[in-house]
Amino acid sequence: GDRGRRPSRGDRRDGPAKRLRPPRARARLQSRASACSRETMKILDESFSKGGSGHVRVVPDTSEDMWQLFNLLRAEDHVEAVTFRKVSRSAGADGVGPGESERIRVKLRVSVESVDYDGEGEAVRVKGRNTTETEHVKLGAYHTLDLDTGRAVKIEKHEWDAVDVRRLREAADPAADADLAVMTIDEGLANLFLVGASVTSHRAKVEKSMPRKTGAAALGYDKALTTFHKNTLDAVLRHVDLEKVKCFVVAGPGFAKDAFLRYADLECARLTSSDDAPSDKKSSNGERKIDQTLHAFRVHRKRIIETHASTAYRGALREVLESPSVARLIKDTKASLEIAALDDFFQTLANKPERALYGPAHVFAAHDLGAIDTLLIADGLFRCADANARRRWVALVEEVEAGGGVARVFSSAHESGKQLGELTGVAATLRFPLPDLVDADLPPIEGMAGLAIDSLNA
Question: Quick check: 160 pLDDT over 80?
Answer without folding.
Answer: yes
